[in-house]
Amino acid sequence: MGDHPLDGGGWLLRRAPTPRVGQPVKFTAPGAPVPKARPRLGRRGRVYTPQKTVNFEARVQLYALRAGMRPATGPMYMQIDFYMENRRTRDLDNLAKAVLDALNGTAYADDNQVKELRVRKFLDRDNPRVNVECIPHPIRSGWA
After folding, report:
1. Residue 7 lies inside a defined structural domain of this protein
2. Which domain holds residue 125?
3. Four-residue CA torsion sign, 114, 134, 27, 117
4. CA-CA to 65 of 20 to 30 Å: which in 27, 37, 58, 109?
5. Helix or strand or coil: residue 121?
């Protein structure tokens, strides 16, 4: 604890009681949502992810861990609600991709375990945030 740049000395990683395996986990990551940005080509031909995207994904992951999130082994249902600070256009798929990538290794081993996804976008100028609900999907077979 305490070595993450957004950790604030360890207080963010204090966890809620760990949910039982198979139980839904809900959490809120406060602050303005950031869509997944395309990788950029830097000096000497190096490809990098923009820092704003890296910071947002780290914030989502920290709040997931704080809520007691553990990697699921089976299919997942996810609901993600974005509360935006303004009406500026942002693609919903890029917003969702940032959250799904942030939860790799935290909510699931890989985001291909997400078999059902509901994503919504709202306006809340006073309290921008991301609400996430991860639910182990009850159907264990028949998924691609």
Report:
1. no
2. 25-136
3. positive
4. 37
5. strand
Q: Is 37 left (phi over 0), alpha (psi -120 to 50) or beta?
A: beta
Tokens of 96: 């969702």
Q: Provide the token pair at 77.
A: 């249902």
Structure tokens at 37: 């940005």
Q: Is residue 31 part of a domain?
A: yes
Q: How high is the pLDDT of residue 32?
A: 97
Pick from 5-14, 70-79, 120-129 the range whose average pLDDT is largest.
120-129
For 36-66, write each residue's pLDDT tens digit: 988 777 788 888 788 999 999 999 999 999 9
Side-chain-side CA neighbours of residue 111 (13 Å): 11
Flag whether 2 is in a domain.
no
Distance of alpha carbon 75 from the chain centroid? 17
Q: Which residues of 80-98 are buried (b: 16+ CB within 10 A; e: fewer)?
A: bbbbbeeeeeeeeeebbbb
The CATH number linked to 115 is 3.30.1330.70
What's the CA gap between 137 and 36, in Å, rounded?
25
